[in-house]
Design goal:
The protein contains one helix and 15 strands; from the N terminus they run H-E-E-E-E-E-E-E-E-E-E-E-E-E-E-E. It folds into two domains: 43 residues, no CATH class; 144 residues, Jelly Rolls (Sandwich). 2% of the residues lie in helices and 44% in strands.
């Protein structure tokens, strides 16, 4: 029997398969709303690898959900939950964050106290950092430089500076934030230089108030 001949009794259920349908033959008039409403509801935010069917300039393509909205990952947050003592006068001292609150990409290097941009995650990041600098009651602070490092871990990418202008103080919270373009392998850390008079200064830590912290999140572009 020819493929163009309808058999006696008509076409049986499920007899027509994709090989008998011409390419580009399915149009809007042949699709019913139940093609969507008849499916099982996802009932949650789609995973990044879930796929949509879209028209890209008239060409049908599939699109991963990760390209629609997405999430600000990787993201990271760490604090000091104890005091970092014996900060030498006018010496650049790396802040030793010892309380990682979250790290979605496992980029934290606890030996070097820096966060490393993971493979495939270069781009723009929002970074917030702060330090609670204190004289410990035994000295006066003249000025503070709070430095954000990137690159190989020793390249300054931003500085927050404060001077007492001859009005000595014994403590203060210093903070900075901004958007920075980071490359894979960049090592993000924070250091403080505290110029003080007498005794030894310190960087205070608090697990509750996060006065001393490093936080970052990749920006969706």
């Amino acid at each position: 029997m020819s493929k163009t001949t309808i058999p006696t009794g008509g076409i049986t259920a499920d007899a027509i398969d994709a090989t008998l349908i011409a390419d580009d033959a399915i149009s809007d008039e042949h699709i019913d709303i139940t093609a969507i409403t008849g499916q099982t509801a996802l009932a949650e935010a789609p995973a990044g690898t879930d796929e949509f069917l879209i028209s890209d300039g008239g060409v049908l393509k599939r699109l991963d959900a990760s390209y629609i909205g997405g999430t600000n990952t990787p993201n990271f947050s760490a604090t000091r939950n104890s005091n970092q003592t014996s900060v030498s006068d006018a010496t650049i001292t790396k802040i030793q964050f010892n309380n990682v609150q979250y790290d979605t990409a496992s980029g934290w290097d606890s030996s070097n106290y820096w966060w490393v941009v993971p493979s495939g995650q270069g781009g723009k990041y929002y970074i917030s950092w702060s330090a609670y600098c204190s004289s410990g009651g035994y000295a006066y602070i003249d000025d503070v430089n709070l430095i954000l490092y990137g690159g190989n871990g020793t390249t300054s990418i931003d500085v927050v500076a404060h001077s007492s202008h001859n009005s000595n103080f014994d403590l203060g919270v210093f903070k900075g934030s901004g958007i920075y373009a980071l490359s894979v392998g960049d090592k993000i850390n924070v250091a403080a230089s505290i110029n003080h008079e007498g005794g030894t200064a310190r960087i205070d830590g608090s697990g509750t108030w996060n006065y001393t912290h490093l936080q970052l999140a990749k920006i969706i572009e």
